[in-house]
Amino acid sequence: MPSLLIIACGALSREIKALISANAWTDVRLECLPADLHNRPEKIPAAVSEKLSQVSRGTRVLVAYGDCGTGGRLDKVLEEQGVERLSGAHCYDIYAGESVMAALSEQEPGTFYLTDFLVRHFDRLVIRELGLVKHPELTSVYFAHYKRLVYLSQCPGAELEALAYQAAEKLQLPLEIRNTGFGSLETTLIRLVGQAGMGSTDREET
User: Is pLDDT at 197 greater than 50 in this prediction?
Assistant: First the structure.
């Protein structure tokens, strides 16, 4: 049985797998829920709860989500199960840190954010989801109140930066790139893997 099971948003899958590989964690297992749940955040608590119901007793679990628009409902599910999640309201907090995100928002409230995952899937999750393929003229309507696009980069590279610039061009917004690395995703996993069975990460046996 693995010492740690991570139930994660699919948007964090690549980064978590990279951390598992880089640290040679053979006792960590990853199970992902569809990233598209972010389009229906009200469904996230029930989906996570269903996953947790399938976990064997005594398995140490981390839920790799922020609040992600659930309005505290995900936290209620996790509190009942005695399971920890990543800190922060969303993946931007997880990568950049809550204080940095607060400063960015204060500096310019009209900021649209991207991560590596969102850069890779920008056309599907933003352009197609908003119907901008058929109606590109609506771009200026949907993004009328945005003043800039900030790309929070986990793994800097020319290919992703080029895609970020393409996204900025499509949204007609200036682009700012900030290299965040894996942020608290990395520090939280290192802490939990190293703790080997400490209280807050163990599911309560019933």
Answer: no
How far apart CA 47 and CA 115 sit, in angstroms, is 23
Q: Enter the pTM of the model.
A: 0.87
Measure the CA–CA gap between 145 and 159, rounded to whole angstroms.
28
Neighbours of 2 (CB within 10 A): 13
Q: What are 159-177's pLDDT values in tens digits?
A: 999 999 999 999 999 999 9
Q: Which residues contact 120 (CB under 8 A, 6 or more apart)?
A: 160, 163
pLDDT tens string 6-15: 999 999 999 9
